[in-house]
Amino acid sequence: MTVTVVPLELEMFESLPSHTRRCVFWEMDRDEPDGFESGIVDRRSTAEHESEFDKEAWISGLLLEWGTCGQVAFESSTGRVVGSALYAPPGLVPRARRFPTAPVGSDAVLLSAVSTEPGFEEISVTLIDAVVSDIVRRGVRAIEAFGFSGSREPLERDLVGLMLGNGIDTDACLECLMQTNLLIDSGFETVAADLYLPRLRLELDEGLGWKSAVERALEKLVVEAAADLSGAPTPVG
């Protein structure tokens, strides 16, 4: 099984799995009368927690205003989408304000969701790595995410549903939350503890910032090796 991860483009929207394409748990807050502040989403369909129109509008607006906001995993042999990760400035993710461990740091990008199709759960880390690579290149200091540390027992589902606001089906809610252990395994650290919904952070200027330095060093070595072979002087800098 070979999987390729590429940045999300609007043309890929129709290929996304149904839940990813339709769920607006993160992107809309039904209890906010004006929608989210940037006006990217036209709140014409708020009766349900699923709206393919609003999800596409949110992604389209982000791509235009902010740039890449997702990573998509394709199964190479079939071209089928088997996973995705979505991320954005926290001010453009209305549901984030509902979490008991909010707000997200102003210097961070919010990783809102990582989802995979059955049988492809192991690519979650690969998707997060792709997000990190993109954010590092863009010079952002950190990535934050809300984890879910509970279970799918009815009492805990109901409790989490109450925490995050009315009108959202708790099963759909949990489907949109990342397991805390996945984030910890990917290098995130808890910065705001909670029994069920901790907020975690991955610093990009410490621990992962070295990747850029290594890449620059390797590029310099390649240039020097090419210069040695050609006899030309090595560029400085």
TrEMBL record:
<protein>
    <recommendedName>
        <fullName>GNAT family N-acetyltransferase</fullName>
    </recommendedName>
</protein>
